[in-house]
Request: fold
Amino acid sequence: MANGLLTDAAVRAAKPTGDRPLKMADGRGLHLVVSPTGARLWRMRYEIRGREKLLSFGAYPAVSLAEARRMRDEAKANLKSGRDPGEELKAQRRERQNPDDRFETLARGWFDVNKDIWSKRHAADVIGSLERDVFPFIGSRLIADLRPQDVLSLARKIEARPAIETAHRVCQRISAVFTFAAGMGMVETNPVLVVMGALKPIRRGRQPAVVTIEEAREVLKAAESVPAHPVTKLALRLLALTAVRPGVIAGLPWTELEHLDEKEPVWQVPAERMKLKVEHKLDASRDHLVPLSRQAMEVIDTIRRVTGRGPMVFPNARFPTRPMSENAMGYLLNRAGYNQRHVPHGWRATFSTIMNERQPADRAVIEMVLAHVPENKVAAAYNRARYLDRRRELLQEWADLLLDGLPPAAELLKGARR
Reply:
């Protein structure tokens, strides 16, 4: 460095020191920050109207030493004229906005890098949440311009639905996008790290569920009476009849329902779509077999008339080739008056409680219906077809009890839509 000023050689040679950023001054407020990751970022501190602010010019070598000095001198000129150089710089960036610097572009880049290591269901959930809850609000913004309050405002909208866990998951995904961008020197800080502490806490516990057959019928009757898309109503009915997890219904492709036996239909859910350890998701012996009751087949035959030409049994309303959101069934129950009283996942607890009371000798069979396999059983001992005939009988008994007095599935195609 000559006369206390930086040189190109010094900037090129700058390296991080441990886990703390290295700050190298150039003069008149301009300095270079070398982060622990090796990113070299130009900054300038300034004061306007009694407030100290920090101006970011970009990363070296995309912004050279000469360009950083030019930007510093321009900022000083703006200050002398009474203008905030930070706001002026933002306006300039918006004018010459590069689509590659927008949050949505970077988020899709992050998704493309990671999607192959995720299950198809998880990948669909990730991109779906971004397209639904994030891109409409901050997708077109430059990632470097986003601040904690932008992310918190977005999270508050999700919490208000209410969807506290979703708000946490969305913020975690936004944070991952910022980490991805930081690795390319496009941002200096991750605003989500500040926001996470301000989110409403997740209350863990048992999923709310009704526990009598009379209550169960009332839940379904109330939900099916609310104005809603018939796809959502039929999805909720099939969820209740099969006692699988909501994600299994939401992500159901038509390919899994092809070639069902006419007399004794069995739906085979691939292990990769089940709640299993990653190392078990490619093990076909862990596929889950669901004997389909007469009423479940009525639902399938009815929904086929609506969505049978597409890939998904229950498609997303906005993106027909993608699965519906699991939240759709939850919102339907909420609108029916069951917020915090019965959730989609609660059908599993309802089925277990009622059928264990009615058939106490069949506890092991009921566990198989719910795809509960004791952890101490090795894979070789797990027979996916175990108790299949008895499972069919129990699910038929459950369907007869649950839908007693309720209209046939075809009636759900009628009525007011939301």
In short: The beta strands are 22-27, 30-34, 40-48, 51-60, 266-269, 288-291.
